[in-house]
Structures are given as structure tokens and as C-alpha cells.
Amino acid sequence: MSPDAPTRVGVGGEHPYDVVIGTGLLGELPGLLGDGVQRIAVIHPGALRTTADAVRDDLVAQGFEAHAVEVPDAEEAKTAEVAAYCWSVLGRIGMTRSDAVVGIGGGATTDLAGFVAASWLRGVKWVPIPTTVLGMVDAAVGGKTGINTAEGKNLVGAFHPPAGVLCDLAALESLPVNEYVAGLAEVVKAGFIADPSILDIIEADPAGAARPDGPYVRDLVVRSVRVKADVVGADLRESGLREILNYGHTLGHAIEKLERYKWRHGAAISVGMVFAAELGRLAGRLDDDTADRHRRVLETLGLPTSYDGQAWPRLLDTMRIDKKSRGDRLRFVVLDALGKPGILEAPDPQLLTAAFTEVAR
Ligand SMILES: NC(=O)c1ccc[n+]([C@@H]2O[C@H](COP(=O)([O-])OP(=O)(O)OC[C@H]3O[C@@H](n4cnc5c(N)ncnc54)[C@H](O)[C@@H]3O)[C@@H](O)[C@H]2O)c1
Ligand SMILES: O=C(O)C(=O)C[C@@H](O)[C@H](O)[C@H](O)COP(=O)(O)O
Ligand SMILES: [Zn+2]
């Protein structure tokens, strides 16, 4: 195998597919889309217009009828209004059940594109082409698609696995360093919940790990994708195991909402993971070293690990509508050891407050 050959990570389950990781992958797209596709809607934000146009032109050159559909940037795209705009474009171009959606961009764009694909005609094929590290290692893999509502993050959505995922690492060259670093929070998450070798790589050279053109990009992406693929291949619909991917997200999503989505997702879940580690420690489930390691590794990458102490009542209120909640019972993913996640059911409110005190500033 030549060093530039793409790595393919298989995602199992009812509708298996490949996550292809490498460079110069555009030629792989028709193969992932499979037979029978005539029309393709290429959903993308303005920031990725050049890339989307190149993909569209390439598809047209190969005989497809491809349309670029520009949507607002980042979290602004994850709204019912933007989804409705996309549905209206799909209607106008005559997209049928044998056609397909391609989403090009960060996790926000692929979450929207996947949701549009899941809901249009009750489900058409789609392929995400993630262009952020967060999109590659997490959002584009696993078929969790959705949009936000005024009440909170990702409250409307569907499980709709893609036909394949194209992670072209060359896209990361134009990604601002702060976006790259924010995305590393999900990489660190994969390290804590399942593959500690990820943490070893980062800790051995944090400056190198924090660079989108650094020496560990491919290794970190492949390892994190493997973690995600193993989990979602076994539990697409989050009936159990998949909840571990929500490590740090209960508080993280509440922070995002309070910040009106001006904080990056990765930054919010960075604070959320330190909170979850403190919760695990205070519940007597996680050892001190592993709990402390969270703050250390996240801070060494330049990620935030604290949040406004005054916000606790509002955060607590927002967390009640977290998807892991069951009725009045809050549920949190915590660690029992490195790589051993579990669920903390309905923790005592005093425990929650004590854990938050550890991240409050
Ligand atoms: N579905 C899932 O399983 C899942 C998993 C994790 C996160 N998410 C979601 O993903 C979203 C966060 O994704 P994100 O961190 O990728 O943020 P994002 O999609 O908001 O993108 C961040 C910014 O980077 C820009 N950008 C993207 N690619 C670029 C490139 N190659 N060069 C230059 N600029 C580029 C975007 O235009 C945007 O401004 C959140 O909405 C989160 O809820 C979903
Ligand atoms: O794939 C999953 O499952 C995850 O929980 C991955 C998370 O990183 C991601 O942010 C996801 O969108 C959160 O899902 P939600 O169901 O809590 O909205
Ligand atoms: Zn996430």
C-alpha cells in the first residue's frame, strides 16, 4: 500500500458504509453514492463555495445533474427555516427518492444536510464531506443528523446513516487553528472513553498535536473515527452504548445554548468533560489521576476548562431537556476508569453543584 492510499474505516450495522480518510478523494464520491443517482444537491456554507463548486463541476463532468445549495455559516444553518429553504430547493430541482444530498462543511453543515436528506421524501441517500477535524472524527460519522430549536441544541433530528463519508485531510489546510483546536476536544473525548493512545499522542507533543498541518493529524483522525465507528456500528439509535459519545455534552450543550451558539461546540464540551470528570470523581467512581488528566490535556491544547459560576441555575435548567434525561431524572456519562464509561443516574443535586464548583470561575 502506498503511503498516500486512503484509509477506509468500515461502519457496521443495518446499512454499513465506509469512512474514507486521505487526500485527493473526490474521485471516490460517485462510488460512495452508488448506482441510480441522477440529481445531487450539494449543501454548503459560503465559506466553502469554492470547494462546493469544484465538487459540483466534477459531478456534472461525470454526467450527474448537480446543484450547489448555499446555506448560512456554522450553527446559523441548523434551524427549521434553513431546513425549509433546502426542502424548497430540493422540490424545485425535482429531487426524487433515487437522488442524493452531499453536505460539505463542518459539523453544523453536515448535521443540517443529513437532516434534510433524512426528512426529504422520508429519506434519500446522502454523503457528508466534512471539512473540519470535528466533522471528520465525529459529526459526519454515525448518521446522527439534526437542527436546533429555541429550546435547545439538536432537539429535532433523525438517525439517518450516510452512504459513505469522505474525509479529505487537505481541507484542513484552510481551517483556522482555533477551529482545529476546538475540534480536538472530540478527539480527546474519544481518548478518554475508548482509546487512551490518543491521549498519549497528544501529551507527548501538544504543540504538534494542536497544528492542523502537524504530524499527527491523520493518526488522530483515523483513531478517533475507529472509536466512533465501533460505537455507532453497534448502536445506531442510541439505545445504550452510543450514549458514551455524549461524554461532556450534557453541560456542554447547555453552555452552547446559553452562549447563543457563539462558543464553539468543542470548547463547550471541553468544559463539559472536566465537569463530567469531577462528577465521576465526587461520585467515588473515578480516580484522581484520570480526573486531573482531563484538565491537563485539554489546557495543554489551549481549550477552556472553566465557565461563569453565576450561570449554574440556568445551565441546570437547560440540562433537564438533554436527550439522555428520562422524565425528571438527569443522566450523565461518567468514567469508572480510563476507557470505561458508564452512566450516573439521577445524581444528588448537591453532587452536581459540587462538580460545577470545580469548573466555576
Ligand atoms: N452529528 C453528530 O454526531 C455530531 C457530532 C459532533 C458535533 N456535531 C455538531 O457539529 C457542529 C460543530 O461542528 P464544527 O466544529 O465542525 O463547526 P462548524 O460546522 O460550525 O464549522 C466551523 C467553522 O469553520 C468553517 N469551516 C469549515 N471547514 C472549513 C475549512 N476547511 N476551511 C475554512 N473554514 C472552514 C465553517 O464555515 C464555520 O465557520 C455542532 O453543531 C455540533 O452539534 C454533531
Ligand atoms: O454521535 C453521537 O451519538 C454523539 O453524541 C456525538 C456528539 O459528539 C455530538 O455532539 C452529537 O451531536 C450530540 O448528540 P445529542 O443527541 O446529544 O444532540
Ligand atoms: Zn459533540
From TrEMBL:
Pfam families assigned to the protein according to its UniProt record, in alphabetical order: DHQ_synthase, DHQS_C
Summarize where NAD(+) binds, as residue positions. 73-78, 107-111, 131-132, 144, 153
The residue ranges crossing the membrane are none
Q: Under which EC number(s) is this enzyme classified?
A: 4.2.3.4
The protein's predominant localisation is cytoplasm
Give the catalysed reaction(s), semicolon-separated: 7-phospho-2-dehydro-3-deoxy-D-arabino-heptonate = 3-dehydroquinate + phosphate
Q: Where is the 3-dehydroquinate synthase N-terminal domain?
A: 69-180
- What does the Swiss-Prot or TrEMBL cofactor note state? Binds 1 divalent metal cation per subunit. Can use either Co(2+) or Zn(2+).
Q: From the Swiss-Prot or TrEMBL record, what is one GO molecular function term?
A: metal ion binding
Q: Where is the 3-dehydroquinate synthase C-terminal domain?
A: 183-325
Kindly provide the name given to this protein in its UniProt entry. Answer: 3-dehydroquinate synthase
Identify the species of origin.
Answer: Jiangella anatolica
Q: Which gene encodes it?
A: aroB
